[in-house]
Amino acid sequence: MFITKECDYGIRIIRALADGTKKTANIISNEEKIPYTITSKIIKKLMNAAYVQSIRGSNGGYQLSRPLDTITLVDIITAVDANRCINECLRNSSVCDFKSHPDRPCTVHHELAQAQDIMVSALRSKTMDTVIYGKFLSAVPNAPFGDTVI
Q1: Does residue 32 contact residue 10 with C-beta atoms inside 8 Å?
Q2: Contact assessment for residue 47 and residue 40, using Cβ atoms and an 8 Å cutoff
Q3: Contact 65, 50 (CB under 8 A)
Q4: pTM (2 decimals)?
Q5: Residue-wise over 5-37: b if at least 16 C-beta within 10 A, else e?
Q6: Hey, what domains does the chain have and what are their CATH numbers?
Q7: Helix H or strand E segment including 44
Q8: Contact 115, 39 (CB under 8 A)
Q9: Please, what is the angle between helix 25-32 and helix 5-17, to 10°?
Q10: 129 or 139, which is more confident?
Q11: What is the pLDDT of the chain when averaged over all its residues?
Q12: Which of 38, 54, 77, 122, by CA, is between 20 and 30 Å from 4?
């Protein structure tokens, strides 16, 4: 599971919205130094995954739709790019002559699958409140949804 630039931008967009305030795509783009067109594209993906919601109107913008402690790094990466694998052969749809070769099974595939499982598990264990605010803070000022970080 490679973390692409778009996945990184998705994480940064969630960070921009972490304080619970409503922000426009333009403000998020400027704060996080992400090109505006890419910001808009990734916000749509995060909205489709129900991590971000749109507020319409003249005072509209975007805000988180879920508490930070319910969103993990792997959630964001999957929302932005659902088919991330560390090697093409790990995709279910991939065709690999060695993956299921009866005489010579591919040990490389097995090792890469194991490495990817470890990475996914590590990313799944990191919630965005911990990533953004750190695990040693006793409380986060202005945290949305009344989150307390321990």
Answers
A1: no
A2: no
A3: yes
A4: 0.77
A5: ebbbbbbbbbbbbbebeebebeebbeebebeee
A6: 5-146 (1.10.10.10)
A7: helix 36-48
A8: no
A9: 110
A10: 129
A11: 82
A12: 54
